[in-house]
Amino acid sequence: IPSVSSIVPESCLLIVVGLLVGGLIKGVGEKPPILKSDIFFLFLLPPIILDAGYFLPLRPFTENLGTILIFAVVGTLWNAFFLGGLMYAVCQLGGPGLNHIGLLANLLFGSIISAVDPVAVLAVFEEIHINELLHILVFGESLLNDAVTVVLYHLFEEFASFEQVTILDIILGFLSFFVVSLGGVLVGVIYGVIAAFTSRFTSHIRVIEPLFVFLYSYMAYLSAELFHLSGIMALIAAGVVMRPYVEANISHKSHTTIKYFLKMWSSVSETLIFIFLGVSTVAGHHYWNWTFVISTLFFCLIARVLGVLVLTWFINKFRIVKLTPKDQFIIAYGGLRGAIAFSLGYLLDYQHFGMRDMFLTAIITVIFFTVFVQGMTIRPLVDLLAVKKKQETKRSINEEIHTQFLDHLLTGIEDICGHYGHHHWKDKLNRFNKKYVKKCLIAGERSKEPQLIAFYHKMEMKQAIELVESGGIGKIPSAVSTVSIQNINPQTLPLERVLPALSKDKEEEIRKILRTNLQKTRQRLRSYNRHTLVADPYEEAWNQMLLRRQKARQLEQKMNNYLTVPAHRVDSPTMSRARIGSDPLAYEPKEDSENLPIITIDPASPQSPESVELMSEEPKGCSGLPPSPEEDEEGLVMRVKEPSSPGTDDVFTPGNSDSPSNQRMLRCLSDPGPRPEPEEGEPFIPKGQ
Length: 689
Prior knowledge:
Layout: H1 2-5, H2 10-27, H3 37-54, H4 58-63, H5 65-93, H6 103-114, H7 118-128, H8 132-161, H9 167-199, H10 209-226, H11 231-249, H12 252-283, H13 290-315, H14 325-333, H15 339-346, H16 356-385, H17 397-417, H18 422-441, H19 451-470, H20 504-519, H21 539-562, H22 573-578, H23 584-587, E1 612-613, E2 618-619, H24 629-634, H25 660-670
Antiparallel strand pairs: 1-2
Helix pairs in contact: 2-12, 3-11, 3-12, 5-6, 5-8, 5-13, 6-8, 6-15, 7-8, 8-9, 9-10, 9-11, 10-11, 10-12, 13-14, 13-16, 15-16
């Protein structure tokens, strides 16, 4: 009945079915079965958690891991102690029926009822198709708060049997949280690696490949529960670790078997849990106390809202994508309780907790309120608040390329800044995985296959299967490359279009070219930051080149300064020497001239009017006359042009003859200047020339 299922969640309908079945069994005089905790924790819960962990969307989960951990750890601790403390106050003020309930019993009750239930969250959130961020935040919190719930439950249960609780017990209880959570993760990782390594050798027994996934996952859960570690954390870790390697090793049929069997198994477990919850409500012993039950329900809602508001205010200081008030409302409203709380309450011992029936009644009331009221109203509220829904889009090669490009870019930016963020560590982990782990856990050539090509093969296979299942493709020729399957139209495809198969050598050569040139984008780039810069081998040569260029400019400026003709020295020997062969009037400096000509004489130039002796700075014809001290101080200073060394760079070291002033002076010396115009009757070419 689609009209009913669109309003009422499936979990609510299943509880109603359980209530009806329990009522019928009780009506005919039989005793209805009760959901025992051993059956729940050993057989019904693991399939749901394995399905969630194996198909966990890893990228959004890791990107929001900090937020999820804060909600799961700090939020659950806040709920447990806030609720336990307030319920203790209620018990002290609530009259003779509640006075005997102590602080430890209330804290234990708070730890049971405070944890968000993954089964209930999955059942409701998958139906309303909320956006990926909110779904992973609430669902991730419900998965990871198991460690906190297990620790608090066992801690307060043990403390209840103590005569006196010391500070050492409290410190050990605090440390046990890390042991339970990290120990569960470690157990899961170990079994995940073993499962991946085993799948490497199953190529000849494809039939039992799915069995290893279920077997090792269940062994991880049992091993963790055996040592009172977090079984849920172990299952999630095992599923996340084994999936990429197992899927690379097993056949496509085995992959399909694992997928559908897990979905079916978790769906059956979920159905049984909610039906048994309804049956147990009818069959169980209840003790109703209005004050305790209503206070529990009210304080549960208050604690959840306050915890989400305060933690989100703190988290938003560090998040790039802030959690809006709408998001906060959905997170607070989505804190559903379920069968885990009921099973933990059912496990309580009558000897230490005589009020167990009242606890169970309050727990069932909270479960029914959250599943029925919040579960039924969350869909209309999501539509009313216009919260972003999940968009069903198929991943494309284009998206994968851009995602990898942005990952490399952000990793490079973090390296340059010297900031080791999660992109840096993610890149390190990917490199370690590619260099060592894949070679050990993946068989054959697929261990060396780049991520992009592996994703392309996956998409290609998926598209081919969809085409075959939809009936849009006829008989595919065996020699056609799988790359071109999506382009085949069987109605118009001529037989001549069958593509020849590539030889193994040619195919391997193409793969090698693609691997070396396209995929290893950051293979040869060394990581660096502002503190440890790698020395550039060309830096020293470049610095020497720049220094030579700077020295050449300084030398040219000095020569220009020395060779600038002073305005008041009209009759200096330098000017006389420069005027030889030219008109004296044309080169006579004006007293009010600001821009004085710069005269440079190259002794090696054949166009100079006379040869100049470099050492004595005199003309050869006047070698007998020593220069006066005044001339030595204020006259021309000649420099010997040093021969270029073998290592000098002629491009950056300009010669004296290349400067504009030198060229201008050479033109002046070679041109004798203006001559008087010939009179009429005088031949143009003088005699004797």
